Amino acid sequence: MTTEIHHHGAMTGVTGSCHELRYAAADNPVSQSAPGYQSLLIDCGLFQGDEAGTDGARAKQLQIGFDIAPIQALIITHVHIDHVGRLPYLLAAGYRGPILTSPASAELLPLVLEDALKVGFTRDQRLIERVLAMLQSCIIALPFEQWHRLDGQGGVVALGLDGEPGASSDGGPLIRLQRAGHILGSAYVEIEVPDQRQRIVFSGDLGAPDTSLLPAPQPPERADILVLESTYGDRCHEDRGTRVQRLRAVIEHALADGGTVLIPAFSIGRTQELLYELEGLFHHHGEEGAQARAHWQRLQVVLDSPLAADFTKGYRRLRQAWDDEAQDRLQQGRHPLAFEQLVTVDDHADHMHMVNYLAHSRQPAVVIAASGMCAGGRVVNYLKAMLGDPRHDVLFVGYQAKGTPGRDIQRFGPRGGYVMLDGERYDIRAQIHSIGGYSAHADQRGLIEFVTNIPTAPAEVRLVHGDEGAKEVLAGKLRAVLKKAEVVVP
């Protein structure tokens, strides 16, 4: 059989990433019906927002609606919930094969899934621990830039750093992870399957070239078929200097009015990037003199998310993976993710006290809290308390999916609209801002450069993980520059 790619998510939007690469089974290379094929699964993510559907549709989408018997391995590109959130359902369906991911993602994945289990499954800690133990027994960490071959027995064999390993019929598929620059540990995946002369690349989520803390992704040396994300395929981000100045301007409003800048942010990636930029602003104002330093020292930075705090500790433990700029800050004796003005809120009682204090005092603050799309979590309590007061600001720094409260606030807030939170209406009088440059995703320019810098253009590019408009715009741009490539929107 020829290689086939089946998409089990991220076709109609930006969530639910799950892709299956099918190829001929070693003992039956011509039949296209199971068990005549084997496969690799790339990510197993959760649907969110409108893509999750109503309660009935949501339950159906959580089910694993494909045969897991042929799957030789699950490859995790990174640990955001829209790429790993259905993993507990995959385990419940009986999957016990290897879960391949980068070393940093291997350390962070259990934290993500423990939180997901507590929110969406059960508070039974013993049951959660059994699931996590099962997960840990399946995880195999693969170093970046090194080819590995599946051995057919649930393990992998390291082959080295050779860029052309030569897939053959005497073994399983070849897999190599490369840095994607999206969040710590994120990877794109290169695959060669037995008896095929094709190299298939799954981009996962690609980072922007100037993402803080992480080196920029470098394109593969070869990709015959490229499955490419398209989240921001229809737009370009602000440059880093512009976005830092806009962040500073929003904070200055808080300092002037004694208000709070509320930033809904994903617990991993975006939170750490924001902390890094805030430390830079504090350091800059400290160098400007005593008056500027005193002015900014009034500002409190509140990290109100136990999960984000755990991830931030993980980022600090894994500092060897930071980029050169971040390493320079460390050499200067600075603490980019643990600076003096940072306060971490742990338990629920302290959280509610902080909400009440900031809503009624005139203490200027920046609060970073999950969830990133305002669909749940601690950020909702801040929104309920602060949306009606123009002293406060809500700053969006990431993508807001259709059907989420974040998208409604972002769209209707500047016009004095309202949003429904937990079934109640809240009028919006706070200032609403969006800074696209803080997205952890590559923009249109970055996506096109990633593709066009591959030495030999792919024969086929398949666009996933984007709204319909973003995919169509990016498809048109790619067709204009890749004259011989087939650009497909599945």
What does this structure look like?
With 490 residues, the protein is α/β, with parallel strands linked by helices. The chain folds into two domains: 4-235 and 440-488, Metallo-beta-lactamase, Chain A (4-Layer Sandwich), CATH 3.60.15; 240-438, Rossmann fold, CATH 3.40.50. The chain is built from 15 helices and 22 strands. The chain has helices spanning 55-62, 81-84, 87-92, 103-120, 125-138, 240-257, 270-287, 290-297, 306-317, 324-331, 348-360, 379-386, 405-412, 444-452, 468-481; strands at 4-7, 19-24, 37-42, 71-75, 99-101, 139-141, 147-150, 156-160, 174-179, 187-192, 200-202, 225-229, 260-264, 300-303, 342-344, 365-369, 393-396, 418-421, 424-427, 431-434, 460-464, 486-488. It has an eight-stranded mixed β-sheet with strand order 8-7-9-10-11-12-21-22, with helices on one face. The chain has a six-stranded mixed β-sheet with strand order 1-2-3-4-5-6. Strands 15-14-16-13-17-20 form a six-stranded parallel β-sheet. The radius of gyration is 23 Å and the shape is globular. The two termini are 20 Å apart. 47% of the residues are buried. Residues 28-34 have low confidence and may be disordered.
